[in-house]
Design brief:
The protein is mainly β. The chain is 5% helix and 42% strand.
């Protein structure tokens, strides 16, 4: 397993060992002991699986307020996504900055999204399947989001007219959004 630091402190790109032959491949996508050897000791409590049947589906930018903030371990098992995280931790040297990643069934990369980050993705291929683990349960009363097209963030999405949920159409800008995360160095 290879852990790759990102420009946003705390977020990590994870490259698992993949063993392939003429039959296909095998990869260990999660092993608590191996993750702990790299300092990743999150206790995941829930797995989520989303299918987007069309390219251009944009989900996000989502997060949960503390005390129900979630660390996410995300990956794609079919298709591909343009994945974006935004640092929402006040006092962080990268507060309000975003970083993008291409996650796909082909590259098998995983992204660890720490508590205090907004997260979203846009599907690049039809029938994309997105899986993620979280370390706290979904708490609807703590569910929040930021507008995917916030001009202050100026995220370089690969689409102009995304397919959005009604909820995602209504998120406020970062400047207007409620968030209660503090950077802890």
């Amino acid at each position: 397993m290879k852990i790759i630091e990102t420009k946003l402190i705390g977020a990590k790109l994870i490259e698992s060992a993949v063993f392939g032959d003429q039959r296909g491949f095998f990869m260990e996508s999660y092993n608590a002991q191996r993750f702990a050897e790299h300092g990743l000791t999150h206790a995941f409590v829930q797995d989520n699986h989303a299918l987007s049947v069309e390219a251009g589906v944009l989900r996000g930018l989502h997060y949960q307020l503390s005390p129900n903030a979630q660390t996410k371990l995300v990956r794609v098992t079919a298709g591909a996504v343009y994945d974006v995280i935004v640092d929402l931790r006040r006092g962080s040297p990268t507060y309000g900055q975003w970083e993008d990643f291409t996650l796909s069934a082909e590259n098998k990369l995983q992204l660890l999204v720490p508590k205090g980050f907004a997260h979203g993705y846009c599907t690049l291929e039809p029938n994309t399947e997105f899986l993620y683990k979280v370390d706290d349960y979904y708490a609807p009363e703590q569910d929040r989001g930021i507008a995917w097209n916030d001009p202050a963030l100026a995220i370089d999405w690969p689409i102009v007219q995304p397919i959005l949920s009604g909820k995602d159409e209504k998120h406020p800008t970062l400047a207007q959004a409620e968030h209660n995360f503090i950077f802890e160095g």
